[in-house]
Amino acid sequence: MEKENNQQSPAIPNKKVMLSNARRLRKNQTDAEQCLWQQLRGRSLVGLKFRRQHPVGPYICDFVCVDQKLIIEIDGGQHATNREKDAVRTAYLQSQGFRVIRFWNHEVLAATEAVLERILKRIESDSPSP
Prior knowledge:
The chain has 5 helices and 4 strands. Strand 1 and strand 2 (59-65) form a beta hairpin. The chain starts with 14 loop residues before the first helix and ends with a helix. The chain is an alpha+beta fold. Strands 1-2-3-4 form a 4-stranded mixed β-sheet, sandwiched between helices.
């Protein structure tokens, strides 16, 4: 059955190509990605496991916590002119059940603790209460 809306799902590239691209991105992280990864790796943030440069559908996301269905994207200056593409990307990721939170490179580098606090607040606010 065809979708009734006009929004098409992006084509998912070959799995080998995606994994190769993800590996390349892991080796060539930005300073902001390296900075945040040091805070997230090894279950350092409240015991949650994050993956870096992790494929989700046709996209490679900067950081993903599968258990929390949370994606963290770190945006550089090029994202200021690609807002429409980012909106399509975010809509797709949300349609897959993920929550997406975005930070600018300079935010991560200049205020890492504040970024971590916002991530924690997002996790806590969206977690079901006991």
